[in-house]
Amino acid sequence: MHHLLRSSFFSTLLSWLFVIGLVAASATSSSAQMPVSNQALPISAVSDTLRITLPQADELFKNRNLTLLAAQSGIRENQAYELQAQLRINPTLYIETMPYNAQTHETLPFKQTNSEQVVQVQQLIRLAGKRNKQLAIARTGTELATDRFYDLIRTLTYQLHTTFYNLFYDRQSLGIYNEEITTLQQTVNLYQQQFDKGNVPLKDLSRLKAYLFNLTTERQQILHRITDDQGDLTVLLNASPTVTIQPLLPSGAPDQFVVSSLALSNLYQLAEQHRFDLKTYRDVVKQEQQNVTLQKALAVPDLTVQGTYDRNAGYIPNYIGVGIGISLPVLNKNQGNIQAATIRTQSSQQALSAYTLQVDSDVQRAYVKAQQTEQLYRAFDQRFNNDFGRLIQGVTMNYKKQNIDVVEFLDFFDSYKNSQIQFAQLQNDRMQSLEEIVFAVGTNPFRI
């Protein structure tokens, strides 16, 4: 029996070492095959591995994310509109001459005695501060683009962090499944040999194989989640698809933040200051108010100043004149645009009030959920998993010695797997709840 155990162990070890590109030599009999050992790694063909901590991931994200780079272009675009709003209106030049003198039969005559030329220069002068009001609206537009940029950072950072933790704890769960599958596969191989010799019943072997298949199926689901998370992180970090991202999390990281150290009233205040999506609503209200001011200014007519030179105008050879023109605001006083701008201002103020309530609700909900997860996490005895790990080793040994039956063995085996997976999920849930607080507040309240 010990000789068979050592042989199966070395066969599994070889499968793990040569899983990329190699397949372990199968045993001579059907009972010695190991169908799951060639899936020990989450990705079987990679060219490189990127081991990265969360701060390092944040740095790469800010420097390389293509969506952020595109959003920065939006800010520069609005700054260009702001520059355009500062420019003054160009003057207008008008020149008139005779194409043909019917009396002298000359084409395009330019002599003093046989033609007339007119030159006019016009300049529009905007009154009521229209230029400054349009510039103020353009500047607010730049502020809105900046708000959207920083809110995009907040949203994508939340996605980056949650995906990072999902991948980290899924890889931990994958390690648990790999360990259990390897141990159970060894047991199945030994019992297959014993069954072939008629020493164990078929029902025991069938139970073991059925549970092994169930573990393999569950493991495959984790592999799918890991593949999805790998793809998401690759896009967020603008990394090569051939690179395997391996998150690194210091052992004390989950315990350095405590939800009970936060005050809900303080979180509301922080959200008011740091939620750029909320600031976007404020800036929209500001811009609509500026538009009302502009529309009222547009009701004031602009002034046109004109200078005219007319050679051979009539009663004097060289006529020079100046003129001023202005429209009379009798019928059109821009009433409709002023009314529409006022309505939009009222609507934007109502939208701001509604969204402020939504932000407060987000903060309160995230805080309560984090408290609940924190209580469960603190109540869990982390020594339980270590004790259970030692217990399952004894159970496995006793089963191989046939001191316990297959039902008891699989019951302990399943309990061990569930406790390990649930603890990893609990740790992930806790980190996710902390990230939800950061997302709801708009900044990290644990570092303020």
From TrEMBL:
Family statement: Belongs to the outer membrane factor (OMF) (TC 1.B.17) family.
Bilayer-crossing regions: none
Name this protein carries in UniProt: TolC family protein
Pfam families, per database record: OEP
Annotated source species: Spirosoma taeanense
Entries under PANTHER family matching the protein: OUTER MEMBRANE CATION EFFLUX PROTEIN, OUTER MEMBRANE EFFLUX PROTEIN
Xref: Gene3D superfamilies: Outer membrane efflux proteins (OEP) (1.20.1600.10)
One function term, GO molecular function aspect: efflux transmembrane transporter activity
Top-level taxon of the source organism: Bacteria
